[in-house]
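hey so i finally got around to running both of the ones u sent me last week. sorry it took forever, my laptop kept dying halfway thru and i had to restart like 3 times lol. anyway pasting them below in the order u listed, first the sequence line then the structure token line for each. didnt double check formatting much so if smth looks off just lmk and ill redo it

first one:
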Amino acid sequence: MAKDLKNKVVVITGGAVGIGFETADRFLQKGAKVVILLDIDEKQGVETAKILNSKYGANKAVFYKCDVTKDLDAVTKLIYDSYKYVDVLVNNAGILNDLLLKKTIDINVTALIEWSFKYWERMRKDKGGNGGTIINLASIYGFRIDQFLPIYQASKFAVMGFTKSLGHEYNYKRSGVRVVAICPGFTETKLTANVQTWDNEGFGKDLTVFIKQKAWQKVDSVGKAAVEIFENADSGTAWLIEGAKPIVAVA
């Protein structure tokens, strides 16, 4: 499969801001045909599409309002009615709030799995598709553990397991669909602006000190990593981007 973004039709969940927006921008820089931005925030999504279209040309970015936990079938129909095929799905939508257990699993795990299977089935060459790539946003917490975010960490461990299984060489060979994961370290986004844990009161200053000691990076580092991973990664692999350092494969 050609690991080249030129003329690719790309769908990005949670695409209105942060890592999703930056990934869309970087993919368009590399020649993507169109980025389809999906987000629950309609006002920001419309504005993001407008910004990208002013930068790259009319209709290079399209926005659909979308709740990934509810709108999979309806939005997918809209996309395929308009574009006939999708080359790349980026499962970027996510939540970081350990006070919301069910919502965390619904968005970070269940929705990601449902979207992956929906597009994997459409893309697979053994069922008449063109092949493609699914990129799942995991986290350093997909393979590291600390004491502060057990629910979020559980959700990202699930993403890693799912990615490595669906992206297994056996599945790739029969489908032509590559499945890979990006594992960002601490990144300056809306999600990390106010971290909510299962025991905010109990952790107190310990959590504040812990967070401040981390190697933080901006979203542009993750956007660059997304391009590099798309262009180089084999199916079933996961890649760390931490502290704006070069990407590293993780087991």
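and the second one:
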Amino acid sequence: MRLYEDRSAPNPRRVRVFMAEKGVTDIEFVPVSIADGGVLSEGFLRRNPLAQVPVLELDDGSCLSDSMAICRYLEYLHPTPALFGEPGLGAARVEMWNRRMEFEIFWPIASVFRHQHPFFKGKHPQVAEFGDVSRDHAEKRLDWLDRELADGRPYIAGETFSVADITALCGIDFGRVSRIRVGDARPNLARWYAAVSSRPSAQA
């Protein structure tokens, strides 16, 4: 299998961290540059007409082109550790928290970059005001997550590291580009961030 990715983008990093936690090492990485238009090449568009990374090309030539779909497939191939949670209530809680991290943390932070950073100027329509709204939303949700973690639980979805932690970590790290940071005013979030950032997988 091959993973087409841009190392600078947050979604491929979610897959890399997931792979590192699973100990998956038999997938070939294929670099595709967003900045240089690699995602618009004919060869890549055959794999994903939406021109987005990551894309996992399977051995039969078919492709998965969504980071969470890729992670779910890898979970099926490598069921332990169960990063999507144990069957039943555990999996439901991880699903809830991962979706919260996507919609309330990851995407608002990504939207600030998309609508206000010069990188996307001329590549996508930018609405600076929406970037401001997204920044405000992201900051408020980081405050919310700090309050949620005030109960002392070690990870986003409870006692066990999960894909929800991966999504939150990659989103928050991507926020540095737009000057969105955990900061000292969110001690519970800072405690969690220090712990998950120290995991070897965070360097993937």
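quick thing i noticed on the 2nd:
Helices lie at 10-22, 42-47, 67-77, 89-116, 128-148, 163-174, 187-197.
anyway thats it, ttyl
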